[in-house]
Amino acid sequence: MDGAMQADLLGKTLELATAIMNARDVDTILRLIVDDITDEFGFEACDAFMLDEEHDNFVLKISKGFPTDVSRKVEGLAKSKKSIEEDLSTAQKIGNLTYVLKADIGTNGRDYYSVLHPERVKLPREEPDGWHELDVLYVIFQDADGNMVGFLEPDGPRARKLPSAQLIARLEIFARLASIAISNAKLVGALNRTVKLFRALLDTTVAMQQPVDLKETLNTIAEKLNELVPFDEVSFYLVDWNKSLLIPAYATGPYADEVLADIGPISGLAGEVARTGKVEIVADSMDDQRVEDIPGIEDIEVRQTIMAIPLKGKRGVEGVLELYRDKSRKFTGVEYAVVEPFAAHAAIALENARLRDELKLNFEQVQRAYQDMKDLDKMKDSLVDTISHELRTPLTTILGYLEMASAGMYGEVNPKMKEKFNSILEQVNRINGLISAMLEMSRLQNKSLSLDFEPVNIAMVTKEVVDDMDREIKSKNHTVTVLFGAELPMVQADRLRAHDVIENLVSNAVKYTDPGGKITIGADILGGKVHIWVKDNGVGISEEDHDKLFDRFFLADASLIRADGRVGIGLYTSREIVKRHGGEIWFESKKGVGSTFHLTLPLKKAT
Length: 607
Fold this sequence. Notes:
The protein is of the alpha+beta class. The protein has three domains: 3-190, GAF domain (Beta-Lactamase, 2-Layer Sandwich), CATH 3.30.450; 206-292 and 303-357, Beta-Lactamase (2-Layer Sandwich); 453-602, Histidine kinase-like ATPase, C-terminal domain (Heat Shock Protein 90, 2-Layer Sandwich), CATH 3.30.565.10. It is built from 15 helices and 20 strands. The strands form four sheets. It has a seven-stranded antiparallel sheet with strand order 3-2-1-7-6-5-4, with helices on both faces. A six-stranded antiparallel sheet has the order 10-9-8-13-12-11. A five-stranded mixed sheet has the order 15-17-18-20-19. A hairpin with a 3-residue loop joins strand 19 and strand 20 (594-602).
């Protein structure tokens, strides 16, 4: 070979080497090599095989130069790893990575998957180092550890001779370059698959955060999973352990409607996976007794491979995921590794759906209970209002007759009878006052209570309250101090209602303070309003009762119901009245230390 030819050959070699190293996928790399072998290396045809690690065989990836009918027949051809190893063990090694399996001339040519020149099959080898039609040439691809990951089969050398040492060296250069490029391409492919996996998982995670129903979430999971592990159909089942049922939640495929209607016992393949918590991969659905017929499609024979995966949540197996595709594409352990995190997402989706259903049920129960409580509250209010109105008239009559009898209008009243009359009058007046309070509460509740606003001397009203309660204050030996006088500004208020509120606060202080207590009533201006406060050193209010103190019918000390007939509406009506005035009422209290109640009333309007 002259210098010009060598230079041209070197240039083409470098050009191909550069193209190989720049390629990013295995098929492109193999196509470049096969094209160059058939175009530049003097071979009529060439096949390239790659190792399928999952099935432990070599699969035909790229082929060139063979007749169309032959290429069509051998598309996707696979050779077992064992058969190739046997060939290499008997083949002649003619390079570091190159072997030639010289054919036995007596072998029937039909045993070979492709023959370029059938007419030459039975011809004798022309010379010892010549090429026979049935010879096989192997150029091996190896990974970094020296393991065979693929090979080339150059065929039909045009010179009808075995390749020269120089040609073998060129072939092996490309084999080594191809091995490196293929390893790189696999790494890139694995990285891309990993990135795709994480993107798909991220998408499903985001989908699970959206306020969508279970069906939409499972649909998203199925779509993203199908991008990584292709399948023809999918079914998600919920497991109801309490009722021992498998409940279809989502399904795709031509029989999705029948699958979704098939609610049944925890049995069959899905039932076994639910009970054992273990993954099952079925090679052929028609040959596995655990695969049950779906009602409505019993007579249809569909041979599929199935991957059934338990969906495990915090409480155990929540459901089962089943993937289906044609049995010729059996699911693999590698694919399960990809499916597993999606199954975890599906389990969370099922668990969330269950929790949402439980929350919805609880919410509905709470709503019903709340509505029942409101209805009972209305009934109670109506009953209180009715009883109060019905009692008002006879009590007024009774009170009138008692007062006249006590005054001697129906005859002489001796001192002992006078004492009894006074005791009865006191109790009737107390009941009458309670009824009045109940009626006032009812009017406040239905907003029918009208207020008569006018300028009010709140200092004078406070003095009247203290004077009215003088006998009760003295009976408990309390000291009541009022820290303000006539200098307090006038307020805009309903005088009678303002009197009732202050009386209620002072009365509470007197009743809830042990004998010999100290009660202080003070006032100032706060936020443009008159601020009045009543402080005692009484029993105080426990912290757990603070939020309930202004509720209707609440008593911090229930024993007072028996002691003086209080029913816990005074603070409620006081708060509502103060609110109707445009003021506020609040308190501070500590159990065993005492309480301070505050109220504000707006100042008199300027004239």
